[in-house]
């Protein structure tokens, strides 16, 4: 068990399981985007580890960019997604893959969808390492899902609780 700030967390998803999920997504991306020079857009901060591991496994040409969005305070969403750093690259007419560490309520994804629609991308798909189906309130399709989890607060592998826990190589869930 570990403690971050005032909360206790217990081990939940092992490094091996995460690595397997990352490898499966990367293998599908290699097949689906062969010779297509996709742009991978990581959603900071949480996606830095997942994005790095997936992109390292992509075999062909690709470009990499990031946006920085924020909506969580403590263990819950504020309901308002702020674009803290927007896209600084032209993506019109390009094939884009959004890389997310987690899709929870879907609020962040909806905001990203607005940005990409305004940019007139040729096509975009979403890859997320973790997905909470019970919490998801939107209808945007998520093409690549690593691990589905119940509606529990998790930390590790890029995900934080008030800034802590992003460096953990396995995932922990809040102890009830
Ligand atoms: O589906 P949602 O309910 O919108 O939750 C998902 C988003 O929440 C987290 O970001 P957060 O706002 O905590 O910022 P961070 O990535 O900097 O931690 C996570 O990285 C996702 O981007
Ligand atoms: O379960 C979570 N943990 C950390 N950050 C998050 N952002 C959305 N859901 C989560």
Hetero groups in this structure are: 1-O-pyrophosphono-5-O-phosphono-alpha-D-ribofuranose, hypoxanthine
- How many beta-strand segments? 10
Order of strands, main sheet, comes to 5-4-3-6-7-8
Helix content: 10-25%
Supply the key terms.
single chain, 176 residues, alpha/beta, Rossmann fold, four-stranded antiparallel beta sheet, 38% strand, binds 1-O-pyrophosphono-5-O-phosphono-alpha-D-ribofuranose, binds hypoxanthine
Description of the structure:
This protein is α/β, with parallel strands linked by helices. It has a single domain, classed as Rossmann fold, CATH 3.40.50. The chain is 23% helix and 38% strand. The protein has helices at residues 15-32, 48-56, 107-119, and strands spanning 2-4, 7-13, 39-44, 63-73, 76-85, 95-103, 123-131, 144-148, 154-155, 171-174. Helix 1 crosses helix 2 (48-56). The longest helix has 18 residues, at 15-32. The radius of gyration is 16 Å and the shape is globular. The mean pLDDT is 95. Residues 72, 102, 104, 153-155, 159 line the site of hypoxanthine (HPA).
